[in-house]
């Protein structure tokens, strides 16, 4: 039987993190590397040297795949790139996402489609491609989706984002049901209000930021590093009997 700390080791594992170039994705890549995993990060733009440096500082290998998750061919290419680089895929973190803001009465079809493509369709087909390889290898695996507080709540002015993140929570459960027999655990992390590019407009709005902070029992915006422990837990053997769950890391937002 493994010791408690050994349960969290990712030595010998290969992980894929989408949206690894900044914010939460970079924090995930760094944390998984510190736990022992080699990384393939993907992003819409070129590789971010800061992410590579963080992974390599932990003594692990880092490779990058530029991919626009709105492009269906690019999605399958991410898993293929990980297999070419490391010969395996043990962990997939569907982190990349986008948001469009606007009143539902005026919301455009293009804003709807882009958010659903990136935040829901791409995680499904990436998970499918990764799971096929995990089943073929016979070692099981871990798939981690990045959900949201709006997987539980409606929010305002983010119709496509709420729909996508609510769908992602449901997708997490159905994939967990179907793939548990193969030793694949599928779980999700629902970040609270974290200091990222996506929340920059909210933090810049003094009134809205104050309203948000007033509801967070922890009394502060979250930081990307606050999610590091959750992703290592869900990527490791420590969570082998946990699947289909969405863990909120929100400073107490949902408890309020």
Give a short overview:
With 256 residues, this protein is of the alpha/beta class. Helix content is 43%, strand content 15%.
What would you note in describing this structure?
The termini are far apart. The chain is 43% helix and 15% strand. It contains 8 helices and 7 strands; from the N terminus they run βαβαβαβαβαβαααβ. It is of the alpha/beta class. Strand 4 (91-94), helix 4 and strand 5 form a beta-alpha-beta unit. The chain is globular and about 50 Å long.
The SSE order reads: EHEHEHEHEHEHHHE
**What is the number of domains?**
1
| Span of the ends, CA to CA | 39 Å
Q: Tell me how many strands there are.
A: 7
SSE-based structural type = alpha/beta
CATH homologous superfamily classification: NAD(P)-binding Rossmann-like Domain
Q: What does the overall shape look like?
A: globular
Poorly predicted runs of 5 or more residues: none
Strand order of the largest sheet: 3-2-1-4-5-6-7
The percentage helix is 40-55%
Strand content: 5-15%
CATH class categorisation: Alpha Beta
Mean pLDDT over the residues: 97
Note the main attributes of this structure.
256 residues, alpha/beta, Rossmann fold, seven-stranded parallel β-sheet, 8 helices
Provide the fold topology.
Layout lengths: L13 E5 L4 H12 L3 E6 L5 H9 L4 E5 L5 H15 L4 E4 L14 H29 L3 E6 L12 H21 L4 E8 L8 H5 L1 H10 L12 H8 L10 E4 L7
Parallel strand pairs: 1-2, 1-4, 2-3, 4-5, 5-6, 6-7
Helix pairs in contact: 1-2, 1-8, 3-4, 4-5
């Amino acid at each position: 039987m493994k010791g408690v700390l050994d349960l969290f080791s990712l030595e010998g594992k290969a992980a894929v993190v989408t949206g690894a170039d900044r914010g939460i994705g970079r924090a995930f890549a760094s944390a998984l590397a510190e736990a022992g995993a080699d990384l393939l990060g993907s992003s819409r733009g070129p590789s971010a040297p800061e992410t590579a440096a963080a992974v390599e500082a932990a003594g692990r290998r880092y490779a990058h795949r530029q991919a626009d998750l709105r492009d269906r061919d690019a999605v399958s290419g991410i898993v293929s790139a990980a297999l070419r680089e490391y010969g395996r895929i043990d962990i997939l973190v569907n982190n990349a996402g986008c948001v469009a803001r606007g009143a539902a009465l005026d919301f455009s079809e293009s804003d709807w489609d882009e958010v659903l493509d990136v935040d829901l369709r791409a995680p499904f087909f990436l998970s499918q491609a990764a799971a096929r390889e995990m089943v073929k290898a016979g070692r099981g695996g871990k798939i981690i989706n990045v959900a949201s507080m709006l997987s539980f709540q409606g929010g305002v002015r983010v119709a496509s984002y709420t729909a996508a993140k609510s769908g992602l929570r449901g997708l997490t459960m159905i994939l967990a049901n179907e793939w548990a027999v193969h030793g694949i655990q599928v779980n999700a992390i629902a970040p609270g209000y974290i200091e990222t590019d996506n929340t920059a407009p909210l933090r810049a709005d003094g009134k809205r930021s104050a309203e948000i902070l007033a509801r967070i029992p922890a009394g502060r915006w979250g930081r990307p590093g606050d999610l590091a422990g959750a992703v290592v837990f869900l990527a490791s053997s420590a969570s082998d009997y946990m699947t289909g769950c969405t863990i909120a890391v929100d400073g107490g937002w949902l408890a309020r």
